[in-house]
Design brief:
The chain is built from eleven helices and eight strands. The structure holds erythose-4-phosphate. Keywords: Cytoplasm, Pentose shunt, Schiff base, Transferase.
């Protein structure tokens, strides 16, 4: 499974990229608002740090303006992935952009039929939102499983399942078990993957016992 980080915070991205665990980045308008910096500048900077796909979301909803914005954004760097909403106009733009060799991430996916349409439109990534479905009382992980089954039924689909709206370590684990190709994870959740209370407890004991040996490693 590939790990993308879901943030527009360049400092967080730098830290994770230096660890070598980052395969890409996703951003969205809400994350850009939080970063409070010029959008194109953020994307350019991220693309200088990360070689993998960097999703930059269009801010328009009609086909013409989506395409206009996509042309501007994709000029920033070769690894820019244009993120379009899962609407009729978004899918039209997906088809046009992917036919042109541009990577496209179709976002705000909440159903398997939507994911089927995105694959037909040539999406590079489909982003099903697990956490937001869970919040509304629908099992988000079931959607990942359904999309995996459907995509595997058709060998001509190359769209990767990008599990999005991830809230915790269990979402990452279950998305991997369900066969998601990518998980886009907030920095705090990505860092929390390392945590286990028995690791902390075990380390505490080893550190204490080592001190009792009175030895040093030099
Ligand atoms: C995906 O690309 C989105 O940016 C993101 O995962 C949305 O997550 P949220 O539901 O926590 O806002």
């Amino acid at each position: 499974m590939k790990f993308f980080v879901d943030t527009a915070d360049i400092n967080e991205i730098r830290e994770l990229a230096a660890m070598g665990i980052l395969d890409g980045v996703t951003t969205n308008p809400s994350l850009v608002l939080k970063a409070n910096r010029p959008f194109k500048e953020i994307i350019k900077e991220i693309c200088e740090v990360v070689d993998g796909p960097v999703s930059a979301e269009v801010a328009a909803t009609d086909y013409e303006t989506i395409m206009k914005q996509a042309h501007i954004l994709r000029k920033i760097a070769d690894n820019v992935t244009i993120k379009v909403p899962l609407t009729w106009d978004g899918l039209k733009a997906c088809k046009a952009l992917s036919s042109d060799g541009t990577m496209v991430n179709v976002t705000l996916c909440f159903s398997a039929p939507q994911a089927l349409l995105a694959a037909k439109a040539g999406a590079t990534f489909i982003s099903p939102f697990i956490g937001r479905l869970d919040d509304s009382g629908i099992d988000g992980m079931e959607l990942i499983q359904d999309i995996r089954t459907i995509y595997d039924n058709y060998s001509d689909f190359s769209t990767e399942i990008l599990a999005a709206s991830i809230r915790g370590v269990n979402h990452v684990k279950d998305a991997a078990k369900a066969g998601a190709d990518v998980a886009t994870v907030p920095p705090a959740v990505l860092k929390s993957l390392v945590k286990h209370p028995l690791t902390d407890k075990g380390l505490e004991l080893f550190v204490a016992d080592w001190a009792k040996t009175g030895q040093t490693i030099e």
